[in-house]
Amino acid sequence: MQIAFDALPLIGAHMTGIGYCEAGQIEALSRLYPDDSFTMQFFSGRDVETKLRRLTPYVRDNMQPNWAKASGYLYRLVSNFLPISYAGYFGKEADVTHFFNYIVPPGVAGKKIVTVHDMVYKTFPETVRGRTRYMLETGLRRSMKRANCIVTDSEFSKEEIIRYFPRYADKIRVVYCGVDSERFHPVTDTGSIKAVQEKFEIDREYFLYLGTVEPRKNLERLIDAYAMFSKREDMPPYLVLAGGKGWLDSGIYRKVQELHLKEQVKFTAYVPEEDICPLMCGALAFVFPSIYEGFGLPPLEAMACGVPVLTTHAASLPEVVGDDAVVVDPYKAEAIADGLEKLYTDRALRERLKEVGLKRAAMFTWENSAKQLYAIYQEVCHDGTE
Q1: What is the pLDDT of residues 42-81, one digit of tens each?
Q2: Which of 46, 109, 137, 381 is the most exposed place for a label (fewest CB within 10 A)?
Q3: Residue 155 neighbours by CB distance under 10 Å
């Protein structure tokens, strides 16, 4: 087969969860299926060399970039209203083209696959950036109609898509994400952990959140819970909130000020790739109190590092962590505080969660994910429809 991927999620300055999902899947696909031909397609009106450099880790003999000299932003904006052919830029050679970020443009040759990660713009529209919400409201229904198959990350997300778009239920397939064991693994070099801790001015034990600082991650309630927990301890661990600034995040920073926790809650901003694993491995526990996730990869990544996890029973998270984490009610700060205290005071629990977490994370591999995707590509190529 000739398989094309929309490379937009891979060429930005900072990779997001969608980008990591695509990266894991396409790297495994090109490695597992050397006899097939893969291309990474992207628009670029400028900075082509920078974008090509960001795609370098995925280039192989059977995986090459293919770029069109045009503004991707303008194409996505205008093609949302006018049927400007995608094949006019990238040709008609591909048997399958996979779009990982919700939208299938008009005029794509061959079979079309789209990944729809979640329905957060429907369920919690107030947490989604206006421009993104507008593009999805105006384009997603047409996108799913164009697609031969809709891929999503969890059974929870499948049910969410069916709830809002029941007519496309037969098109939906679940493909779980994987954990990159080269990026996330137990670190035995205490020196590298200490160096990262010093870099971020962490001089005692800490709970770690790693992800975008935004409302649907439930960080204001986590801060409330941490305030309750910290009053119970003479020298509580820090709460380290690591990640880039997100949409509507001002209330999160304001909450820390209001509760007089500036010395105990640390914000690191965006964490460089090389610092993520040692920062995670040095944590007492990883906390991920999100109220909505299409998959929820960070808890699994923490498990792969041998770090105990606290998360919630919301959305797809129970599907991901199983019985191998402390699971709490995301809407009750007291429950989150009790979970923090349990992890802090119960060493035996932490050791057990480290052990079972490693086994849980090992169940989710990009190889398994890629094999499921490849079966879908074969399915749509042989179903006889356009």
Answers
A1: 999 889 999 999 999 999 999 999 999 999 989 998 998 8
A2: 46
A3: 12
DSSP 78: H
Task: Report yes or no: 222 and 209 within 8 Å, Cβ to Cβ.
Answer: yes
Distance in angstroms (rounded) separating the CA atoms of residues 205 and 182: 25
Gap between the Cα atoms of 74 and 201, Å rounded? 42
Q: Please tell me if the domain spanning 2-178+366-381 has the same topology as the one spanning 190-362.
A: yes
Q: Check: CATH 3.40.50.2000 for 2-178+366-381? A: yes
Q: What is the distance between the alpha carbons of residues 169 and 162, in angstroms, rounded to a whole number?
A: 6
User: What are the extents of the domains in the chain?
Assistant: 2-178+366-381, 190-362
In this prediction the pTM is: 0.91
What pLDDT is stored for residue 129 in this prediction? 83
Q: Are 318 and 231 in contact (CB under 8 A)?
A: no
Could you give phi then psi for residue 123, rounded to 5 degrees?
-80, -40
With CA atoms as reference, report the closest residue to 171 among 155, 147, 153, 154. 147
* Measured CA distances, 142 to 3, 88, 109 (Å): 22, 19, 16
For 188-200, what is each residue's pLDDT tens digit? 899 999 999 999 9
Of 181-190, 207-216, 291-300, the one with minimum mean pLDDT is 207-216
Task: Measure Cα distances from 124 to 153, 267, 276 in Å.
Answer: 18, 25, 29
Q: What pLDDT score does 384 carry?
A: 65
Query: Residue type for 140, please?
Result: L
Q: In what order do the strands lie in the sheet with 149-152?
A: 63-68, 37-43, 2-6, 96-99, 111-115, 149-152, 172-174
